[in-house]
Amino acid sequence: MAKDAEKSSGAEADDWKEFVWNPRTHQFLGRTASSWGLILLFYLIFYVSLAGMFVLTMYIMLLTLDEYKPTYQDRLATPGLMIRPKGDSLEIVYSMKDTESWDHYVQTLDDFLAPYNNSQQVMNNDVCSPDQYFVQEDSGEVRNNPKRSCQFNRTMLEECSGIVDRYYGYRDGKPCILIKLNRVIGMFPGKNGVSPYVTCGAKKEDRDKIGELMYYPPNGTFNLMYFPYYGKKAQVNYTQPLVAVKFANVTLDTDVNVECKINSNAIKTQSDRDKFAGRVAFKLRINSN
After folding, report:
1. Does domain 81-287 bear CATH number 2.60.40.1660?
2. Predicted confidence (pLDDT) per residue in 211-227, tens digit
3. How far apart are the C-alpha atoms of 244 and 36, rounded to whole Å?
4. Where exactly are the structural domains of the chain?
5. Distance CA 169, CA 163 (A)
6. Is the pLDDT of residue 200 over 70?
7. Is the bond preceding residue 23 a cis peptide, omega within 30 degrees?
8. Span of 87-96, 140-149, 218-227 with lowest mean pLDDT
9. Which of 16, 22, 98, 217 could form a disulfide with 27 if both were Cys (CB 3.0 to 4.6 A apart)?
10. Residue 250: CA count within 13 A, CB half-sphere
11. Would you tell me the Gene Ontology cellular component terms (predicted)?
């Protein structure tokens, strides 16, 4: 029995060696050199053809694209809002007496508003006519690029500009929050000369805690002259309009849940796909100690 097993094992080893290389037929892994050559040639031609088709398809697709404007825009009907500073998880929490707890908010606003300095705006952008769209059409195939942009001067934020009060009210428990509308190429956010505007309020349980709100520019308006937006490449110096909200006498030592939303006669304020479309919610807490 042991001898039979040894013979069987030896035969299997010989068969395996012969499969790897057969010296009689000069076959490697069951194929001759010419057979391997034909297979490799087939796959080489096959994959080169696939690569060529892919490159040709990408080239044809790129010919149809506009480098200044997306061919298709798959987006929500309502642009979103965002705040600055936004803190962690859209929470702005600090203590008035602890300078370090609010200093990073002030630094964030300083950095964010640096491009809005009047000197920068005068150098890069135009003084535009308010309450009307700044439309800059192309002339057929002739591109009207780069397109100009309207000035949004930092001083328009008044008490929330960081110029009147370099601490943006954080030291005194009267913080400023900046609100920006997300950019959407080609959007016209108002009809009949009516600009969209921002309003903020507290959720039902916090309505008696939010206190007086002050808006800059007046009425929290995104003026029509900053629209339409033509894209980063076509409108290189575009300055996004802002609205500042100052919380003049918010209740201290308690959480205040705030929601700000865009109001417009041309933008839907409700969306079945996103309940936060056109609005932003955040928590504000100012501790006295």
Report:
1. yes
2. 999 999 999 999 999 99
3. 73
4. 17-63, 81-287
5. 11
6. yes
7. no
8. 140-149
9. 22
10. 34
11. sodium:potassium-exchanging ATPase complex
